[in-house]
User: Fold glyoxylate reductase (NADP(+)) from Manihot esculenta.
Amino acid sequence: METIGVLMTCPMYSYLEQELEARFNLFKLWQQPSKADFLKTNQHKIKAIVGNTKIGADAELIDALPKLEFVASYSVGLDKIDLKKCEEKGIRVTNTPDVLTDDVADLAIGLILGVLRRICACDGHVRSGKWREADFKLTTKFSGKSVGIIGLGRIGAAIAKRAEAFSCSISYHSRSQKPYTNYKYYSNVIDLAKNCQILVVACALTEETQHIINRDVIDALGPKGILINIGRGAHVDEPELVSALLEGRLGGAGLDVYGNEPEAPEQLFGLDNVVLLPHVGSDTIETSNAMADLVIANLEAHFNSKPLLTPVV
Ligand SMILES: O=CC(=O)O
Assistant:
């Protein structure tokens, strides 16, 4: 395996980097002074790409590597990989589902509690000494609220299960109704938003789900409604979200993802009904180790002609 060229697109987790380095001929794209020169010189050596949510494998990179057989994403989301091109060229693709479901679902609940109970603002109240002057204002209860989930896949279902433990009623929107659940189904996102108090985006980013949260959905959720996004920034029309929050047309938001990461809208920094996280849904030591192990296991399976563990293409 040491002779097989594997290209990492950007810095990821040091353990993954070490494990790849120990097994393969690892190239680090971000360390190359000229990406174009590097690709020209090494195009015939690279058989696999390891990408993530920042840099995956777009058409340009895939086309630059004539010997490419395999793309392993250190992420569950596949929106940074040109899947169609991979399919056309017979390039296999894997991601890291399941192992990160609990962490992302846990964090979605954390965001809901963070927004409703103003946990970050409460923390600031103690640290700034303001508690000595006054008690913190009253906040909003989570238990028993109605939760709408967009995307009832692995992560959406895990969020629903957790919210049920908070005695919440659950409804959802997805491409089609799921036969295995009694949660109320809405074929239309606006109807879902009208009928829930907390709306959680948990679907994959595709052409159809881009800006699935637009002005109409935000208005349907309303001034007491809360939006939680643990999907992708592009699920939300961000300028619309920002103006709705600034104008008080939306009750609050908990965001782990943004349209232009690592930037987040500065206009929101002063709002205590907004909790902003730096895209850390799956970023625990336990889950990162499991994701890295899965990337390695898929690469080894591919190059040993064994069945892939988590194939996408
Ligand atoms: O955003 C995280 C992932 O797709 O794994």
Observations:
- The chain has two domains: 5-95+286-304, 100-276.
